[in-house]
Specification:
By secondary structure, this protein is of the alpha/beta class. It has 11 helices and 10 strands. It has helices spanning 41-44, 52-73, 93-110, 119-129, 172-182, 189-197, 222-234, 241-267, 282-294, 304-307, 312-323; strands spanning 10-15, 20-27, 31-39, 83-89, 114-118, 140-145, 150-157, 160-166, 271-275, 298-300. The strands form 2 sheets. It has a 5-stranded mixed β-sheet with strand order 3-2-1-4-5, with helices on both faces. α3 (93-110) links the parallel β4 and β5 (114-118). α8 runs parallel beside α9. It starts with 9 loop residues before the first strand and ends in a 22-residue tail after the last helix. It binds 5'-O-[(R)-(carboxyoxy)(hydroxy)phosphoryl]adenosine and zinc ion. The site of zinc ion has 6 residues, from α4.
């Protein structure tokens, strides 16, 4: 039923945890043979955030044809797929169910195993996907910043993680999204704040950097979000949107690096890895690059497409599950609140 482990392994990745429907074919955990991503943002924009019911319905409509198109474009046959890797959590329950049921159906039809993938671990794996040699630059501190999570991990191997800290309230991307709405910008807020910030002066306003005491590795963005929203509402005429956006972005970027550096020192790490949707932010990437050089640390962040939700990272991590024959049972279920490591609060 399963192929010889010395053969080339092609994993089909499926990602439907939030508002991107994504499929990918990845060879040996590192070579992307093809990938397609359908973003639902236009469907959710007028609601100012993701509507779970609309998300799951759209996944259902899009996923089968996206998969067919992937096979067609990458000139692959169904029987060349070694296994199906699917995100089963954390994420929106309805959306996860669509991807997981689709994976189960393909697995049943092809008689190939299903590999159960944690979305956050896949975001960390994105760092090693096209550059497997990066793993040797460790030990690493990995920061995952997305719409739902702001997490720090100590990473020693491809799947050797220790959870160090996370957000106590809003996730970093969530703060971008909420601030953007209150400034009259569109959803998802991150790219629009980044764009608005380009013409602004980051020093025109000083927003708080919430560090939660000298030793904490947790994050809190709700205070910053509230102070930006309040200031802008009260003194709208006094500030340009570009200055507010730029000062807010600077406060986030500065806080994220300070916390990451704290983790690096605590764990005596040699390298910083940055992934997740917010890592698509140029100002964040630039600051991390410059500061890592200053502190003589190795720094890497995957290309933007691989920072945002995608299925290549899911298939890539799936390869490692495949090698150790960590196959999901037929009774596979989704886990919307799936944990991502030891010591998670
Ligand atoms: O990882 P991701 O695609 O989905 C989740 O797993 O949540 O992250 C989406 C988040 C959104 O909050 C979005 O506003 C943010 O990433 N984002 C950005 C940028 N591009 C996307 N935030 C800041 N700057 C960007 N350029
Ligand atoms: Zn994500």
């Amino acid at each position: 039923m399963y192929q010889n482990l010395s053969d080339k392994v092609v994993i089909l990745g499926i990602e439907t945890s939030c508002d991107e429907t994504a499929v990918a074919l990845v060879k040996d955990g590192k070579k992307i043979l093809g990938q397609l991503i359908y973003s639902q943002v236009r469907l959710h924009r007028r609601f100012g955030g993701v509507v779970p019911e609309i998300a799951s319905r759209s996944h259902l409509e899009v996923l089968p044809s996206l998969f067919r198109e992937l096979l067609h474009r990458s000139k692959m046959e169904l029987n060349e797929i070694s296994a199906v890797a699917v995100t089963t959590g954390p994420g929106l329950v309805g959306s996860l169910l669509v991807g997981t049921n689709f994976a189960n159906a393909i697995s049943y039809a092809l008689k190939k195993p299903v590999l159960q993938i944690n979305h956050i671990k896949a975001h960390i794996y994105a760092n090693f996907l096209e550059r497997p040699e990066i793993i040797k630059k460790g030990p690493h501190v990995a920061l995952v910043v997305s719409g739902g999570h702001t997490l720090l991990f100590f990473v020693k191997g491809v799947e050797e993680y220790e959870f160090l800290g996370g957000t106590l309230d809003d996730a970093c991307g969530e703060a971008f999204d909420k601030v953007a709405i209150s400034l009259g910008l569109a959803y998802p807020g991150g790219p629009f704040i980044e764009q608005a910030a380009r013409g602004g002066n980051p020093d025109s306003i000083h927003f708080p950097r919430v560090l939660l005491g000298p030793n904490s590795l947790d994050f809190s963005f709700s205070g910053l979000k509230t102070s930006v929203i309040r200031l802008y509402k009260e003194k709208k005429k006094k500030f340009r949107i570009s200055d507010v956006a730029s000062a807010f972005q600077e406060a986030v970027v500065d806080t994220l690096f300070q916390k990451t550096l704290r983790a690096v020192r605590l764990k005596k790490a040699r390298s910083i890895l940055l992934s997740g949707g917010v890592a698509a932010n140029e100002r964040l990437r630039h600051h991390f690059r410059i500061m890592s050089r200053k502190y003589k640390l190795f720094f890497y962040s995957p290309k933007k497409l691989l920072c945002l939700d995608n299925a290549a990272m899911v298939a890539g991590l799936g390869y490692h599950h495949y090698l150790r024959r960590d196959f999901a049972p037929l009774s596979l279920e989704v886990e919307p609140n799936m944990k991502y490591g030891k010591n998670q609060a």
